[in-house]
Amino acid sequence: MRYSREHSEATRKRILGAAARLFREGGLDGTGMDAIAAAAGVTSGAIYRSFGSKDRLFEAVVQDGVERLAGGIGRLRQAAPSAWPEALTGWYLGAQHVAAPGQGCLLPSLTQDIARGPAPARQRFEDGLRQAARAAAIPPQPAPGPGAAVPPSGWATLAMLAGAVLLARAVGPGETQSEILAAAAAALAAGGEG
Q1: Is there a cis peptide before residue 173, judged by omega within 30 degrees of 0?
Q2: 29-42: buried (b, 16+ CB within 10 Å) or exposed (e) per residue?
Q3: Would residue 31 be called left, alpha or beta, if left means φ above 0 and alpha means ψ between -120 and 50 degrees?
Q4: d(Cα 111, Cα 126) in Å, to the nearest integer?
Q5: What is the pTM of this model?
Q6: For the segment 160-174, what is each residue's pLDDT rounded down to a tens digit?
Q7: Where do runs of H (alpha helix) occur along the chain?
Q8: Which pLDDT score, from 0 to 100, does residue 177 have?
Q9: Which residues of the chain have pLDDT under 70?
Q10: DSSP of 176-191, one letter per residue?
Q11: Are 123 and 46 in contact (CB under 8 A)?
C-alpha cells in the first residue's frame, strides 16, 4: 500500500518525536528500535523506511534538537528583545526542564552519546551548536556564513546552561540542586550586565 505524502510526513514526525524523547531518556545504546516503534505507534519497518538505520534516525534527532534550540533562542530574542536572557535562563534552569530530560534540550541529555556516536550526527551537532551559540551571544550577533567565529559569550551561555542542568539532574531534587541552578542563573545574569 502506498501512503500519501502527508501521511508519510506525519509518520516521520511521530517517529522523530518518539525517538527524541527515548534517546534523551535512555541514550543511544539504551534505546532500541522496537521501543521507538511502539512509542510512535508504528512498526520498526516504518522506521527503517523513513530513516534507513538507527544511526540515521539518531542523526535526524540531533539535527532537529539543535535546530530547535537555536530557533527557540531566536524566538525568545524576538519576543522579548531586552529580557530574552532572563527568559532563556528561567526556562532552561526551571524545574520543569530539569525534571523532564525526555522533553527538554538535547545538550544535557545527549552530548555524551553524540560524542561517541556516528560522525554525521557529530557534524550536524557541531553545525547546529554553532548556530545556537551565535543566537545565545550577548550582544546579539548577525548570522554570518559557515565557519565564522562564535562570540565567547554564546559558548559560555550554552555551556553554563547545559552544565548546570546536567549537574542538577545528577544530584536530584534538593538543596544541592537548588544551589547549582541558582549559582548558574546568577553567573549568567552577571555575565549579561554591562
Answers
A1: no
A2: eebebeebbebbeb
A3: beta
A4: 11
A5: 0.89
A6: 999 999 999 999 999
A7: 5-26, 33-40, 44-51, 54-79, 84-92, 95-99, 107-116, 119-136, 152-171, 175-191
A8: 97
A9: 1-3, 140-147, 192-194
A10: HHHHHHHHHHHHHHHH
A11: no
Beta carbons of 50 and 8 less than 8 angstroms apart: yes
Position of cell 541529555?
Answer: 109
Whether the CB-CB separation of 93 and 185 falls below 8 Å is answered with: yes
Whole-angstrom Cα distance, residue 38 to residue 34?
A: 6
- Grid cell 531586552 in the structure block, residue: 82
Q: How far is CA 63 from CA 48, 66, 67, 71, 128, in A?
A: 18, 5, 6, 12, 7
Neighbours of 57 (CB within 10 A): 24
18 vs 20: CA distance, rounded Å: 5
Element (H, E) at 139: none
153 to 79, 133, 144: CA distances (angstroms): 21, 8, 16
According to the model, what pLDDT value does residue 147 have?
65
CA-wise closest residue to 26 among 106, 98, 95, 102 = 102
